[in-house]
Design goal:
Blueprint: E1 2-10, E2 12-17, E3 21-25, E4 28-33, E5 37-44, E6 47-50, E7 57-58, E8 60-65, E9 72-74, E10 77-79, E11 82-88, E12 91-98, H1 100-105, H2 108-112, H3 120-136, E13 148-149, H4 165-173, E14 177-181, E15 184-185, E16 190-191, E17 235-241, H5 242-257, E18 267-275, E19 281-288, E20 291-296, H6 297-303, E21 317-324, E22 327-336, E23 344-345, H7 346-354, H8 359-366, E24 371-374
Length: 376
């Protein structure tokens, strides 16, 4: 079983019971929600009230559907298993208690998108990697009352609405299988599009150590191109005017690096100082009137926010500058791939599946030296 954090810090939450539900406190039923009921829970200090349950207030309640074929809904999205709601720091936390394999059914297509039969091996690879991730990270947020979050900070988990026949088949075909290294489950990473080569951990993270199975791997396809070049984010371009970039950096660099934003009033240049094994920028320098500000790899994507307010797609970039005298008048970033770049390239997995590679080949390519093993 997993405890998946669906919501934290919520003022209120709506629990839907299409087939009816029982609300219990420490295993003892306290009220019943009739079929078709939507119950609203509202935080009030250290407890919450439940609409339709009189004036009683609770610190914690667990909800279970009385018709398992009609799962519960949280704010309109449906989840299998049970749902627990409790008060933490004056607000509501909502947790889905669900079996690991059912959890994966709501992850595979949420992460990979809807896929056809030709992508079966890629979906199976995602199922194995996501299962391994869930097992090695179980309890990660134990202090907050759950194992994993439902969003991109862990794995995207969309519940029943994200399930597809193809995704369910991938979970069943790999049931209990994980990636191991020297007999233990690995710590896996994955991303959307590598753009030509995956990244080593030091090109993306501060605290993740390099391992033999996490290193830069070429995604080149025999005969030319790359397996991930079918991705809509394989190549991209972002352009900033000088004043826009200056305003962005004056906001993002102090937050990322703890520097004084006033130093950026006179922006002179931006260039890549160092690159890692995959060619990604591991240090970008921002030149100002008083010197240069080094931006390390882990901060590049958030520091160089796009004009639309999104993080930069990846650090596999080439930068081109335009000047007005000594001042930087514009910057263009031409990028490759999408995401941090470490571990499995999801679009590369799709390309490899369409080229006839099986799940074992895909995983052993992106995680060299690992073994696909049945864990339970």
């Amino acid at each position: 079983m997993l405890r998946v954090g669906l919501l934290t810090g919520a003022a209120d939450v709506r629990i839907g019971a299409p087939g009816g539900a029982i609300a219990a406190l420490d295993g003892t039923p306290v009220t019943r929600l009739p079929a078709g009921t939507d119950a609203v829970l509202r935080a009030d200090g250290a407890a919450f009230g439940l609409d339709g349950a009189g004036g009683d207030r609770y610190e914690r309640l667990a909800f279970a559907s009385v018709a398992p074929e009609r799962p519960l809904a949280v704010n309109g999205r449906t989840y299998r298993g049970a749902v627990e709601v409790f008060v933490r720091d004056g607000a509501l936390t909502v947790v889905n208690m669900v079996g690991l394999e059912r959890y994966l059914a709501g992850v595979v297509n949420a992460e990979m998108g809807r896929r056809g039969p030709e992508d079966r091996a890629a979906l199976e690879a995602q199922a194995v990697v996501s299962r391994t991730y869930a097992l090695v990270n179980r309890g990660r947020f134990g202090a907050e009352g759950f194992d994993l979050r439902a969003g991109v900070s862990d794995q995207v988990y969309g519940g029943v609405e994200s399930e597809t026949d193809a995704g369910l088949a991938a979970v069943r075909a790999t049931a209990g299988q994980v990636l191991t290294y020297h007999g233990a489950p690995i710590t896996p990473f994955y991303h959307s599009t590598c753009g030509g080569a995956t990244a080593s951990p030091e090109e993306a993270f501060v605290s993740v150590r390099g391992t033999p199975y996490l290193r830069s791997v070429s995604d080149a396809r025999p005969g030319g191109g790359h397996y991930c070049d079918l991705s809509p984010r394989y190549r991209w371009t972002v352009e900033w005017e000088g004043d826009s970039l200056r305003a962005i950096l004056r906001r993002t660099l102090p937050a990322a690096l703890g520097i004084d934003g006033d130093a950026l009033h006179d922006l002179r240049d931006v260039y890549v100082r160092r690159r890692g094994p995959s060619g990604r920028a591991t240090e970008v320098r921002v030149r100002v009137a008083d010197g240069e500000i080094p931006v390390p790899a882990h901060a590049v994507r958030t520091a160089f926010e796009t004009p639309e307010g999104r993080p930069l797609g990846s650090t596999a970039v080439a930068l081109a500058t335009r000047f007005d005298g000594a001042r930087l008048a514009g910057l263009v970033a031409r990028g490759q791939g999408w995401g941090h770049g470490v571990g499995m390239c999801q679009w590369g997995a799709v390309g490899r599946a369409r080229a006839g590679q099986d799940v074992r080949t895909i995983l052993e390519t992106y995680f060299p030296g690992t073994t696909l093993a049945r864990w339970y």
